[in-house]
């Protein structure tokens, strides 16, 4: 139950197409995305896949980043990684929720990040699975995680992590930083909708409100559990996490908590904006119905008179008078004016 997510990742029709393309690409390409031997000073040396078999803890901290869906990566995890069966299953689990689990020989961490890949929705969040045992870092994903690509670039420049703890702190910080940009964008959109609700057409705002509320719900669904997961990491009993590292993790947790609060605020404001839009639509409908009722009230007696005079029988008064039509029109006009006067005095208008 630890690795079973309560909700599947949302996949649109276009997302399904991309998923099929990714699966076809995975079958052709290697699942070993990055393999580094970190030097402990922020830099590292790229290793070939064949060099993994000769690596020993004495050589330095090893970082292996995998696409777990690729056959060669799955085979290496199952047969050559030396990890516990549960840890291997966790690194290959497709649907995960943010969290962590301790093992006698290591720590397994699940994190989420916004999907910043081209053509994707940010709220369609990507999963990152991490294994730490003090001498190795094994990370796995299915869809590309830009924060990991940034980490690899940092290592190439000599500005990356030197220890497992620094890796965990840096990757969680980068994931949260990108979340902040998306949350700020959501907040700006809600502000814009609040300003437009009194002026724009309802048919324009209703789909926009529905979209932003869906995005907020999708983001919060994983941000709130990630906040709890980061808080749990601060108290995990692992020897390689120092007090300073735990302090950095606490700062990251506080940022996530602030983003969750911002999303809650944006959700409430979007709900108020939706209520304002519904109220405005209701007022417009009532105003139109009121005008129609006034028109009907005025023309009802006039229609009765004209209908009565239109009876095709003998004895209709004025039928022989050439001024009768004019007199009837003037009479109807006076009657309509009197009705309007009475309605105004009774404050119906």
Structure explained in plain terms:
With 349 residues, this protein is of the alpha+beta class. The protein has one domain: CorA soluble domain-like (Beta Polymerase, domain 2, 2-Layer Sandwich). The protein is built from eight helices and seven strands; from the N terminus they run H-E-E-E-H-H-E-E-E-E-H-H-H-H-H. A seven-stranded mixed beta sheet has the order 2-1-3-7-6-5-4, with helices on both faces. A hairpin with a 5-residue loop joins strand 1 and strand 2 (44-46). Helix 6 packs antiparallel against helix 7. Mean pLDDT is 82; it is low at 1-28.
Percent of residues in helices: 55-70%
**Separation, N- and C-terminal Cα atoms:** 66 Å
* Number of helical regions: 8
CATH architecture label: 2-Layer Sandwich
Going across the major beta sheet, what is the strand order? 2-1-3-7-6-5-4
CATH topology: Beta Polymerase, domain 2
| Number of E-type strands | 7
Which CATH first-tier class would you pick? Alpha Beta
Mean pLDDT: 82
Q: Could you tell me the radius of gyration in angstroms?
A: 34 Å
Detail the poorly predicted runs: 1-28
The CATH superfamily is identified as CorA soluble domain-like
Strand content: 5-15%
The ordered string of helix (H) and strand (E) elements is HEEEHHEEEEHHHHH
**Class by helix and strand content?**
alpha+beta
How many domains in all? 1
């Amino acid at each position: 139950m630890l690795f079973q997510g309560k909700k599947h990742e949302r996949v649109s029709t276009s997302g399904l197409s991309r998923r099929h393309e990714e699966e076809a690409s995975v079958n052709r390409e290697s699942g070993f995305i990055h393999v580094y031997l970190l030097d402990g000073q922020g830099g590292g040396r790229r290793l070939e896949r064949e060099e993994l078999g000769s690596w020993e803890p004495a050589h330095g901290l090893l970082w292996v980043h995998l696409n777990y869906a690729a056959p060669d990566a799955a085979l290496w995890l199952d047969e050559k990684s030396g990890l516990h069966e549960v840890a291997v299953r966790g690194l290959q689990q497709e649907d995960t929720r943010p969290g962590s689990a301790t093992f006698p020989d290591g720590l397994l961490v699940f994190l989420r990040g916004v999907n910043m890949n081209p053509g994707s929705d940010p709220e369609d969040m990507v999963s990152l699975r991490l294994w730490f045992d003090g001498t190795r870092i094994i990370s796995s994903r299915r869809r590309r995680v830009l924060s990991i690509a940034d980490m690899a670039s940092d290592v190439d420049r000599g500005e990356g992590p030197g220890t497992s703890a620094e890796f965990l702190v840096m990757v969680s910080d980068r994931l949260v930083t990108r979340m902040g940009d998306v949350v700020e964008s959501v907040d700006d959109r809600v502000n814009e909708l609040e300003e437009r609700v009194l002026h724009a057409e309802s048919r324009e705002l209703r789909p926009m409100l529905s979209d932003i509320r869906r995005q907020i719900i999708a983001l919060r669904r994983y941000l709130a559990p990630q906040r709890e997961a980061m808080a749990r990491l601060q108290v995990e009993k692992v020897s390689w996490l120092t007090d300073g590292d735990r302090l950095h993790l606490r700062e990251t947790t506080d940022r996530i908590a602030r983003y969750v609060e911002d999303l809650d605020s944006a959700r409430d404001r979007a709900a108020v904006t939706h209520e304002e839009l519904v109220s405005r639509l209701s007022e417009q409908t009532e105003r139109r119905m009121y005008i129609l009722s006034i028109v009907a009230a005025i023309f009802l007696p006039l229609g009765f008179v004209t209908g009565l005079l239109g009876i095709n029988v003998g004895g209709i008064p004025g039928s022989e008078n050439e001024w009768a039509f004019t007199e009837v029109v003037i009479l109807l006009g006076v009657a309509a004016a009197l009705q309007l006067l009475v309605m105004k005095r009774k404050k119906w208008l």
